[in-house]
Amino acid sequence: MNEIDLRSDTFTMPTMEMRQVIAEAEVGDDVFGEDPTVIRLQVKIAELLGKESALFVPSGTMANQISIAVQTHPGDEVIVESDAHIFYYEAAAPAIISRVQLRPIPSSKGMMPVQSIESAIRGNDVHFPPTKLLCLENTHNRHGGTVIDIDYIKEVRTLAQKNKISMHCDGARLWNASAATGITPADYAGYFDTVSVCLSKGLGAPVGSVIASTRENILSALRWRKILGGGMRQVGIIAAAGLFVIENNLQNLKNDHANAKLFAEKLLSSEFIEIDINTIETNIVIFKLKGNANALQFEKKCLNNGLKILAIGPNTIRAVFHYQITRQQTEEAAEIIKNLVKI
Ligand SMILES: Cc1ncc(COP(=O)(O)O)c(C=O)c1O
Fold this sequence. Notes:
The chain is an alpha/beta fold. It is 41% helix and 17% strand. It contains 14 helices and 13 strands. Strand 12 and strand 13 form a beta hairpin. It is globular. The two termini are 21 Å apart. The protein binds pyridoxal-5'-phosphate. Residues 59-61, 64, 85, 137, 141, 170, 172, 198, 200, 209 line the site of pyridoxal-5'-phosphate. The site of pyridoxal-5'-phosphate has 12 residues, from helix 3.
């Protein structure tokens, strides 16, 4: 039985073509700024995001954490959505690295109510930590790959500017937002001071993320990357895969979105599953098991039947689509779930 793995869009495997590009990559010592392939990737991403400069880093977590470090001082406060990756999955790194306090605000689809943001912004009082940074995640992972609306981003930007607060976009899947709406990554990025993007999620590179911002912020980011031990040497072999996926795989994202939608539509007919089809905007599907069903036990049951999915809550399951998941596998996966959920 061929296994189907829908746990994340990070489970892509480098193709032979990608491995060939990796083998032939021109390299140099990137800590000395001399790796031509890394330089090409950084220029390319800066261009795609409409920013002055960009920096290659090993992971999305490091990209987010450096972006926070660059724009805060110890004791500042950072507004984040309460299910954001930065708050939920980065092991309290902002408290350890930047020594800032996070101020989580709940939302339904990743868009914190503007009024809640406004009331969370601290006044000038010695009791309060200064609010210095606001982060948005686009698309939003834990809300099911939901796209952050551009008009909402504009409104938040206006509020942030009025209060001299910088904005960071965790754009691990900004490519998916762009594929879903047709709004360019640069148009989204224009409302943020720093943007992080990942090459190793749905795009399929084995490693790598990039921060884009002003030249000044990227110089500071370079120093933070050094502090965190993220400087790598002949890393053009990895950057080459990043360039490859930017050139070849962006166009596949719409197909992943169609598979996610198809999968969700198929689950909709099960009386044992609760799913809101309106939240399926990109490549992530989140659904709930009705009654007393336990997500972890269901995850195991699926595993025993050749399907890997991820329990992300007591009765909540996540399935993620990427370019190495076919339409047929999508249909098979939905059938497996519909059959097992009845038992
Ligand atoms: C929205 C979001 N941001 C950041 C990250 C962190 O990326 P990495 O696993 O490369 O550290 C992830 C990882 O899944 C993510 O989903």
